[in-house]
Every structure is written in structure tokens, then in C-alpha cells.
Specification:
The structure is a single chain. The protein is mainly α and about 325 residues long. The protein has one domain: MetI-like fold (Orthogonal Bundle). Helix 5 packs across helix 12. The radius of gyration is 27 Å and the shape is globular. The protein starts with about 20 loop residues before the first helix and ends in a 6-residue tail after the last helix.
């Protein structure tokens, strides 16, 4: 009787290794390694996060709401900082001529300044990236028109563009512009002042990327131009865009503060850092220096931290410096 040879159990295929998470890939990247090597970048990042945290948590960590009339007392007006002879708690950085706590006003002012700066960067980035993608991919007459407009705008300072946009809009609207409309106007004015950097950078990157094989393959399989631009080309040009956005955030905050200081930005009822500096400037020579000094220091520290972070990001994403 024939015997059957014993069968060996089939070996199971080894399970494929799970792909690393995005966080794990980031922690293993050259960008994170460069960040850990730069103590200045780490300090700037921590300072920027603290500024944003203070701005977001301002209603909960401020000693008072400086723009709630029910919490203000004229008897507390013009108090110096707590370490001065006449300083009183809880007004650690003193009060202004209406009895508003300067520390609380700085927290609320930073909140509004960052809000305007971030939205201004979103507006300018959206406009500039969109026009840069179109100019670089379409080329020809469309590219010529967009770039000539950009060249003309580059001949004027950004603050002048913002002043023109703000002034024309207010002249057209007249006295019918409410507070929310003025806030939206200054965001749009800042956005229209800084879109050129995005457009020129993205256009140059798109002109390089559109001749590569993956774009040609996308055209062969019938992908539309918007799909190729948004899904395939745009992710490959985001590095320079992040650098521009970081640096322009600081510029947008300075532009808002400048416009408000000149009296063409936000009204004094809206507590941005620019309006606080403009208000405190009137009392500088009367000895009440703290009303303008602390908002000015907060503005300088915020802009410095963001600029240092942007400088590191520019160097870290530059392949020539690797």
C-alpha cells in the first residue's frame, strides 16, 4: 500500500511593516534635526507659541476686560507699574488715562493683531499662490499680464499700497462703514499688499515643475489642469511658500500697527497693538511712559520671534545650505 508523503505546512507571508506616521517621519527628518541644532530657532519657536497662547487665552488670563466700561474706574487712571512707588495691584503694568489695565490691553491687542496678521497672510497667500499657479502653468499672454501687474506693484512700498486701498475704500463707503467692515478692510488691504512675493515664487517653481515627467503623465491620462495644479504641482512648491508666509506674518502685523498708528487703520475702540501705541503716544511726554512702552515692547518681541523663526525656516529649506 502506497504511503503518502507528509506535507509541510505552507509558510505564511510576512506581514508588511506598517508605514510610519507623519509625526514619526517628521521627527526623523532633516528639518527637525536642523531645528534641534539651532537653539535660536527653538527659543523663537517657544516665544512665538507663548505669544499665540496669550492671544488665544486673553479673555481668561487677563486681570480685566479693558474694553468693558463696567470694569473701569476713573479713580484707577494713570497708575504706574506695580514696582513704582504709587503702583497698585492687580495693575502690574499700570493703567492708562481711563483706568484700563495696560497688561490686559496688551493681551487683547496682541489677540487682534495676530488675528489680522494671520488672515492677511491667508488672503495674500491665496491670491498670490492662485495667480502664480495660473501664470506659471498657462504662460503666454496671461503670464505677461499677471507679472507686469506684479512688477508695477513692486515699485511701491507695501505700506503705501495698504494706505491707498484703505483710503479709497473709506472714501467710497464714507460714514457707512462699521467696525466689522473696517476690520475686513484692513485685512484685505494687507492681503493686496503682499501677494506679489507668493505669485513670483510660485510661478518660477511651476515653470520648472510643469516640464517634469509626472506632469506629462497626468496630462496623458486626461487629468484636468486644476487637478494637476492643486494635487501634483502645488505640494511640490509649498516649501518656499511657508517661508514667505512666516516672514509676511511679521510684516502684516507691522503694517496693521503702522496703519493704526497713523490713524487710517483700526479705530481706538478696537484694541490692536497699533491703536494702543497710538493712544499711549499722547501721554509719553507727560511722564506716563508705560502706556506706550509695554505695547511697543510686545509688538517688537512678537515680530522679532516670528522673524527669527522665518529666517531659520528659510535656511533649513534651502538645499544649497544642507
Amino acid at each position: 500500500m502506497a504511503t503518502t508523503a507528509p506535507t509541510t505546512p505552507a509558510t505564511l507571508p510576512e506581514a508588511a511593516p506598517r508605514p510610519a506616521s507623519r509625526l514619526a517621519r517628521f521627527l526623523d527628518s532633516d528639518l527637525y534635526a536642523s531645528f534641534r541644532r539651532s537653539k535660536l530657532a527653538m527659543a523663537a519657536f517657544v516665544a512665538t507659541v507663548l505669544f499665540f497662547a496669550v492671544a488665544v487665552l486673553a479673555p481668561w488670563i487677563s486681570p480685566q476686560n479693558p474694553y468693558d466700561p463696567a470694569q473701569l474706574e476713573l479713580m484707577n487712571a494713570s497708575l504706574p507699574p506695580i514696582w513704582a512707588a504709587d503702583g497698585q495691584a492687580p495693575f502690574w503694568l499700570g493703567t492708562d488715562d481711563q483706568g484700563r489695565d495696560v497688561l490686559s490691553a496688551v493681551f487683547y491687542g496682541m489677540r487682534l493683531s495676530l488675528f489680522i496678521g494671520v488672515l492677511g497672510v491667508v488672503v495674500s497667500g491665496t491670491l498670490g499662490i492662485g495667480l502664480g499657479l495660473i501664470a506659471g502653468y498657462v504662460g503666454g499672454f496671461v503670464d505677461t499680464i499677471i507679472m507686469r501687474v506684479a512688477d508695477v506693484q513692486l515699485t511701491f512700498p507695501a505700506i503705501l499700497i495698504a494706505l491707498v486701498v484703505d483710503g479709497v475704500a473709506k472714501a467710497v463707503a464714507g460714514a457707512h462703514m462699521d467696525v466689522d467692515a473696517q476690520l475686513a478692510l484692513i485685512i484685505v488691504a494687507i492681503g493686496l499688499s503682499f501677494w506679489v512675493q507668493y505669485a513670483r515664487t510660485v510661478r518660477g517653481s511651476v515653470m520648472v515643475e510643469k516640464n517634469k515627467d509626472y506632469v506629462q503623465a497626468g496630462r496623458l491620462i486626461g487629468l484636468s489642469a486644476p487637478v494637476i495644479l492643486t494635487r501634483h504641482i502645488l505640494p511640490n512648491v509649498t516649501g518656499p511658500v511657508f517661508v514667505i508666509a512666516t516672514i509676511n506674518l511679521a510684516l502684516a502685523i507691522i503694517t496693521e500697527a503702522t496703519l493704526s498708528f497713523l490713524g487710517t487703520g483700526l479705530p481706538e475702540t478696537m484694541p490692536s497693538l497699533g491703536t494702543l501705541i497710538r493712544t499711549g503716544n499722547r501721554f509719553l511726554f507727560s511722564g506716563e511712559w508705560w502706556i506706550v512702552a509695554f505695547p511697543g515692547l510686545a509688538l517688537a518681541g512678537l515680530v522679532l520671534a516670528i522673524n527669527l523663526l522665518g529666517d531659520w525656516l528659510r535656511d533649513a529649506l534651502n538645499p544649497k545650505l544642507q
